Amino acid sequence: MHHNTEGDKTVFVTGLALVLAIVILGMMFPEALGTIGGKAMSFLTGGFGWLYNASAFAFVIFCLGVGMSRFGNIKLGEGDPEFSTATWFAMLFSAGMGIGLVFWGVAEPLNHWLNPISTIEAGSVEAAEFAMRKSFLHWGLQPWAIYSVLGLPLAYLMYNRKEDGLISNLLLPFMGKEGPRSGWGKLINVLALFATAAGIATSLGMGAQQINSGLSFVFGIPDTGMVKIVMVSIITVLVILCTVTGMQKGIKYMSNLNLAIAAAILGLAFVFGPTAEIMNTFTSSVGNYMQNWLSDSLAIGNDPWYGSWTVFYMAWWIAWSPFCAPFIAKVSKGRTIREFVLGVLIAPSLGSFVWFAIFGTMSLNVGVEAAAQAIQSTSTALFVIMENYPMGGLISVLIIFVLFTFFITSANGATYVLGTLSSNGNPEPSTKMKIIWAVLQSALALVLMLGSANGLSLLQTISIVAAFPFVFVLILSMFSLMRFLHEDYPAEAKELPSAEQAG
Questions:
Q1: Which segment of 40-49, 97-106, 342-351, 356-365 scores lowest on mean pLDDT?
Q2: DSSP track, 446-483
Q3: Superkingdom of this entry's organism (predicted)?
Q4: Domains of the chain
């Protein structure tokens, strides 16, 4: 594997310049940029919503198909997996969802309950069922399939074909050997860098916003710019410490800590919340989800609800994929393709379902008035709802803590991915490069939070618009993976590893 470090500067410099340009424009002309971003966004969700929904649906079918096919026993790379199954799961979960789940666990079911599609009466039992089913849809199999459809071919490319882990290399079958180094290849890598930097800054911003809201709600610490700067600075120092110690120690330790705290939160919420009702909601929502999965996955109508929720989510997960997929590929070495599919698709989806069943039930249980009050501000919704329960204060404190640790893990995974993208696919980017990105992404998140009222949503919109071409990259990745597998394991040869050999 050779990494020519000459050509890599273009991707790094161009990607970084793009991000900075957008941020500066956003601070100087927030209204104008907001209008342009909004128009582009509604054009994409309106005109291509069907494409987002249909491709996310296809990705789920594809991943399950590959996992169950004769290729399922193929191992990604040699040797045993680097991480235990529990740690592996913790890393996937922390990087792939983490902050988002905490941010939306209460707010999303409440939003759907009080503002469902126009044919359902707001605040009704039917609306509550709709709220849970759609939350499951947005955080279930689809996002993980979107990550897998990029992550699995990347892992195969890096460990079985010994190529650089650049997203442009996934298009080798379509571009010829020189393709990934051509202008098109560079463009894809620049867009990946941009989508990752913008996406992670948005998430970190949301996380910091929510930590600050929580601190002021629970401890009365003021919600000011100064507090945010101090808080993000402390976190950045921790991220750098974690990054310097590497995957084996830093990220591994943080991810396990995340999972432990998240489990404690779920346990407390389950015991002190409406336990029987949580079990009922979980059971019936999983049933509703499975029964309506086909129609819900492809549902798209004239109701504006679809564009602002389902399509928006599918687009956001696709924008988030250039960050999650390389990270997932990195931590999945030594797993078989079947384990990859089960571990990346099924396990985290179940985790999301449990999270939403518990927090969704707790929020739908407080009544319409309290719910309406809670969703006035998304970043405090969770803390407002927890006030209605015994031990709610303790749960709130733990949530602030888990937001901190999730923030560190996400930022950590991102420094690694951004470092790799910036150094021509080098699987071990230099410490300097990782520190540069650790500081940059935190600075970006801060500037967006302090710069303008809707800086975060503006950057989110722009990263989704920039990630539109990734729909096609993801579709082509499926074909690339099949092409690689059929070339390496032709049907005639019957040389596939059997379960015994793989085990």
A1: 97-106
A2: HHHHHH-TTHHHHHHHHHHHHTTTHHHHHHHHHHHHHH
A3: Bacteria
A4: 8-502 (1.20.1740)
DSSP string, 397-456: HHHHHHHHHHHHHHHHHHHHHHHHHHTTT-SS--HHHHHHHHHHHHHHHHHHHHH-TTHH
Q: Across the strands, what pairs with 336?
A: 75
Using CA atoms, how far residue 128 sits from 117, 291, 306, in Å, is 12, 17, 17
CA distance 468 to 167: 15
pLDDT bracket for residue 70 (50, 70, 90): very high
**Is residue 259 very low, low, confident or very high in pLDDT (cuts 50, 70, 90)?**
confident
Encode pLDDT of 264-305 as tens digits: 999 999 999 999 999 999 999 999 999 999 999 998 877 889
Give the DSSP letter of residue 181.
G
265, 362 Cβ separation under 8 angstroms: no
Is the four-CA dihedral 18, 21, 27, 29 of positive or negative sign?
A: negative
User: Could you tell me which of 49, 329, 280 has the C-alpha nearest to residue 170?
Assistant: 329
Instruction: Scan for tokens 């045993």, then name that residue.
Output: 80
* 399 token code pair: 């949530």
Please choose, from the candidates 465, 448, 154, the residue with its C-alpha nearest in 3D space to the C-alpha of residue 327. Answer: 154
Residue 259, token pair as written in the block: 């999972």
